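WARN no homologs supplied; continuing
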Amino acid sequence: MSAAKEPDRRWAPWWVYVVPIVAANYVKQYFVQDWPVAVNAAITLVLVGGLIVGITAVYRGMGGAAGPRR
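OK structure emitted
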């Protein structure tokens, strides 16, 4: 028998992360386009980190992580 690997339900699908991150970066870039690169990079890291934590929390709260535990 072949054991099919079940998807990891702790994380939302990849596209749920990509769409808001890309959109937020476009909006961020509008406001900080003339700022120094180091500041822009720091804002990007904080923004992406916050979005990942937030999206994961919402996904788990909606029951996306509900399922059989191993």
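The CA atoms of residues 19 and 25 lie 10 Å apart.
OK
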